[in-house]
Amino acid sequence: MTDTDWTPLFLLRTVLFPKALLGLRIFEPRYLDMISASLRQGRDFGICLSHSWGDGHAEPELVGTLARIVDWGGEAGVLQIQVQGQERFTIQDWRYDGLLAVASIHCWVAEPIVPMRRENEVLRRILEDLIGKVPATEIDASSAGMILAQALPASPEEKQQLLVIQDPIERLRRIADLLGQHGGA
Hints:
Elements: E1 7-12, E2 21-26, H1 29-41, E3 45-52, E4 58-60, E5 63-75, E6 78-97, E7 100-107, H2 121-131, H3 141-151, H4 156-164, H5 168-181
Parallel strand pairs: 1-3
Antiparallel strand pairs: 1-7, 2-6, 3-4, 3-5, 5-6, 6-7
Helix pairs in contact: 2-3, 3-5
């Protein structure tokens, strides 16, 4: 395996979902270098929920999402970027290359396009508030679930569980359950 087979990882205490947007403030030199390389090469990087071991290193969850930079700017040593989630992936192998985690990954196939169900009307209204311009009736269950999951007021671990669900209708059901637990629906 060559170094080009390794995808750089941004290890965070947050989860990125496909099709969703996430704003990040970058100030650590290792991540500034990674983002600079990503912009120069037009290459996506992975975002994974991390668990710290207290020695300055973290270990990634084995399922993450590729991130594509869609906007960037900044000042005084802080880069602000907005990324959009692409495909989910499974880490096959990972290591640290200096201070940066890199991984050999396998991308997941896209979820099936299925419509949202009538029982998801509460979620549809929340989605319309989130996306504004596009009528929620034009969004399939997978896209709706990914956008809603990104905005959900839930713990990173709960969001990670939503990320690994492969059935879009089941993800919407679980989001509705979590909203009920957190007082949102």
